[in-house]
Specification:
The protein has 167 residues and is of the alpha/beta class. It is 40% helix and 27% strand. Helix 1 crosses helix 6 and helix 4 packs antiparallel against helix 5. The radius of gyration is 17 Å and the shape is elongated.
Length: 167
Amino acid sequence: MNKDRYSIIFNSKTGNTRKLADAIHEALPQENCDLFGAVERDVPASETLYIGFWTDKGSADKATAELLAKLKNRKIFLFGTAGFGGSEEYFTNILDNVKKLINESNTVVGEYMCQGRMPGSVRARYVKMKEQPDPMPNLDMLIENFDKALSHPDAADLDRLKKMVTA
């Protein structure tokens, strides 16, 4: 294993997690980076892995979950995005679910979550649901959350992440 070397491995469905990965890459010494890219089968030899995911049903997406399950004796910094945001408790629950996927021989050295924009089809689905005879009572809140998520990850989100990885 390469000590002091790192890799940034991520899965980004809509580009949000990619923005976080880019911010980490900008903040860390480029010459120490073994791999920057999508989740693949081969795991780089880096001692520290920055692993990014998009949230799927309250945990990491399938490809990232499979990668995390394979890792042994690594330092892992988790980062991810979720369409719903505004609640640290929500993000903590997601991260707790993701950490359950990690073998105990690994050490989680950091974690970061922020809100990310969602595809327009999500908002359209909510609006269509409102037209139903007996719509869910929380649809207005879901539409409001969708609209708030459009600007994320924003500059403040990226700055917070950069400070975390260089601290």
